[in-house]
Amino acid sequence: MALDNTLQGWIEGPPPERDDGGLAIVELAFGVQVDGQDHHGHPIIVSRWSAKLKTTGGAHRLNYVDVLRYIDIAHDPAAMRSSPPSHCKICKRLLNDPGDPVGSKDCGGDCCRCMASCGDVDCYMALHAVEPDKYPLDEQGEVP
Ligand SMILES: [Zn+2]
Question: What is the reported pTM?
């Protein structure tokens, strides 16, 4: 099945790398899978997070290099920062709390600690860097 894509404003190539949680619609290269599934060329909505793009429906991380073209749909970092304090959707912790900058980092609506306990390797490693006792690595230096 092929759909005629009526979205306007596609920009060729991957979006500029940012870490502001901004949303974009992306079209992935042929053969790139999302959580083991073929996306059949359908656009996917992602948030920018660290060096990855994270899908909004689950927490699947995508690589910038796999993006063929994109449309920014929300990308005003100043506006996002001035919005009222938000809380983790899972544990209700205040996000971006200066008292716990790594653990409370906003990772797309959930805090870094919850993402780490859900098996997110990048979050776990970020926490390991500041709290190696609470977030140890195994003998191979990998996330247990
Ligand atoms: Zn949380």
Answer: 0.49
C-alpha 138 to ligand 1 mean position (Å): 24
* Residues 94-136 pLDDT 10s: 999 989 999 999 998 899 999 999 999 999 999 999 999 999 9
Distance 30 CA to ligand 1 centre (A): 34
User: Does residue 72 contact residue 54 with C-beta atoms inside 8 Å?
Assistant: no
Distance from the alpha carbon of residue 109 to the mean position of ligand 1, in angstroms: 9
Residues 89 and 59 in one domain: no
Residues 111 and 71 in one domain: no
Count: domains in the chain = 2
- Are the beta carbons of 53 and 46 closer than 8 angstroms? yes
For the beta carbon of residue 71, count every other beta carbon within 10 angstroms.
Answer: 17
Domain that holds residue 103: 84-130
Same domain flag for 68 and 93: no
Q: 111 C-alpha vs ligand 1 centroid, how far in Å?
A: 4
